[in-house]
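This section describes the prediction task in plain terms. A model, or a person checking by hand, is given the sequence of a single protein chain and must write out its three-dimensional structure as a string of tokens. No templates, partner chains or ligands are provided. The sample shown here is typical of the held-out split.
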Amino acid sequence: MNLQLHLVSLAGFAGLMVMAAFDDFRRLVIPNGVVLGLCVLWPLYLATAPTVTLASSFGAAGCATAVFLVGALLFSRGLIGGGDVKLLAAATLWAGPGNAPSLFVLTALLGGLLALVLLSPVGALIMAGRRPVSGLTTSVATSANPVPVPYGVAIAAAAVIVMLPSNFT
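The expected answer:
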């Protein structure tokens, strides 16, 4: 029974990350409900994961708080989107202190790759299917680079890549 609940929490995590990536790609918005769902589902993961300890759960909360505070500073300077900050903090909460470095490195690599693809001629074709929210202007999207990058896609992909294999080994 405990293993089944563990799989339910991981499936919920993966599903919510896919929703975040899809919405960010289509509209450059990561819904608050998705991030809230990740935070609400996390205690179920803690209660059912076979390798999670109380100390690691406090460490995960501390890492997520630090990521959120640094991200809020970057957001206040117009360097990153608010949804990206919340999603990365939620992903860090799930990854914990042991997997956080892998999450950050993989997010950076996937985000860079995504930016390169979107800046290429193929990127124009890919972005033609995206429908941004009307009236949405962010300093990130309107600064020196006219091509907005849905960084939530990279965050979600990195989170799934880091979390799922570490829970099945």
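For orientation: Helices lie at 2-27, 32-48, 54-76, 82-119, 121-127, 139-142, 151-166.
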